[in-house]
Amino acid sequence: MPGGPVPAVTVCDISVPWGSPDRPISAPECPHRAPLTVPPLSPPEHPHRSPLTHLCLLQSLDVANNQLRELPAALADCPRLKEANFKGNQLRDKRLEKMVNGCQTKAILEYLRAGGRGKGKAETGREDVRKKKREKQQKKDGGDGEQDEVEEASKLLVKVLHISENPAPLVVKVSPSVKDVRAFIVCCVLKGVNLKPGNALKRFLTMQTKLHEDICEKRTVATIATHDLQLVKAPLTYDVQPPDELKITPLGRKEIKAKDLLRQLQLEAEEQRKQKKRQNVSGLHKYLQLLDGKDSYPCLVDAEGAVISFPPITNSEKTKIRKETRDLFLEVTSDTSLQICKDVMDTLILKIAELNRSALENKEGSGSDMESDALCGAGNLNLPLVVEQVRVVDTDGNLKVLYPSKTDLATVASLLTVIR
After folding, report:
1. Beta strand pairing status for 385-393 and 156-161?
2. Bias regions of kind Basic and acidic residues — which residues (predicted)?
């Protein structure tokens, strides 16, 4: 039916079961196969619509062992497509190639619908970014911009969800008492992380420790706290409390008052020195001096009155991150400057994005069961990480900090593409 739609097609099988591009199927080998007439690529009334949108009754598609390099995003718009076989094609998108060899059709179509790293709908925005960067470079040096395109394509991707787009934005209220103790705090929500594959959670915790040692200068300029968002009871209050009143359930410990926790840590540090016969100590013990001379200690308190963070010492067991954690509440505090908090948060988001890409591409161990979990799991894992803005306000509700603002994440712009 040349020139017209083919709505009656329900099964389409154009696979090459015997194998290779060098041996095309001849008519005698496939007597049961009739030629398939494909509708025009660009019908006049819909110049941008894919011909696949005409296959409204298509339920099964088999294009195995062909020479396909990409899968069109329009496949995701075939409303009745339930079974598809794309195996044996050398796809450019290696993540997609893994998926077609081990995932359900539904997961593959969700990946195409999200854009993936093939030619899906989400690719349009990224192509625009790449195009602008190429044009800018061409004006600068007269080159063809090919290197810029490669670099832009390799960038990690995050999307910012603005307060105005969020039906239930998280707010942190700051007490004026923190000014003389630990004045600065920056927070945000990060959704879509994957900590399940292999040792992803261990690598996440190790990354946080390294940031504390490096950019946070052993927690002397800033401290990071990461929480499972589902366990955070909002609204939150950043406040100070006397050492004998502040109670927390530290990670891996029972509930204890802050003054008793510090005393306990000091005793552990002394014992550590005796056993190792050296002055240096490890773990939380090396941060105890940061609270010397403080009459009150900083803390982040949830809506139930529980302390979920005691910077620069520890987080609470109540909001502890686990392998199943998907969404994070991130917090950076400092007694030095607000900009340091923002710079640390920029770097933290970048590092989490790097770890997340590693998990999704399954660098933990090729061919493992975890690979299927990473690639065939919830559809949102194939989307960019989403950073939700969090407002920090004073007791009267006046805005003190909004992160990320338009100028934030600039310090990692060379490695991260931010969709605002």
Report:
1. parallel
2. 120-130
